[in-house]
Specification:
about 110 residues
Length: about 110
């Protein structure tokens, strides 16, 4: 009886944890739209300089072109998907850093 109860508790914990682990995942198009939106917002509110925006958009374009090459060759494999996720993670981190580095605000000197 104890084993059965422990099994039920274990299944309940695993079931509760599964949606939480899957929740932050976004498909590639959603990630692209979110990153592009954050770059646009940074430009509009002055948090991202023109030079930073050019660099971020160039990197964004390179990742998009890589995605197109991957998709042309029999769709996305899991390895290609992981590669794109890693690249988008790095780009999102760069956007976050550039938005918060305060180098485009009054009083900043380089």
């Amino acid at each position: 009886m104890k084993k059965f109860a422990m099994l039920l508790v274990g299944l309940g914990v695993a079931t509760a944890a599964l949606p939480a682990a899957a929740a932050p995942w976004q498909n590639i198009n959603q990630r692209q739209a979110q990153i592009e939106r954050r770059i646009d917002q940074g430009i509009r509110n002055g948090a991202i300089s023109r030079r930073e925006a050019v660099n971020l958009r160039g990197e964004f374009r390179q990742i998009s072109q890589l995605e197109q090459r991957y998709r042309r060759s029999n769709g996305l494999s899991m390895a290609e998907r992981r590669d794109l996720d890693r690249r988008f993670d790095l780009l999102a981190r760069k956007v976050r850093i550039d938005r918060n580095d305060r180098n485009n605000r009054p009083g900043y000197r380089r």
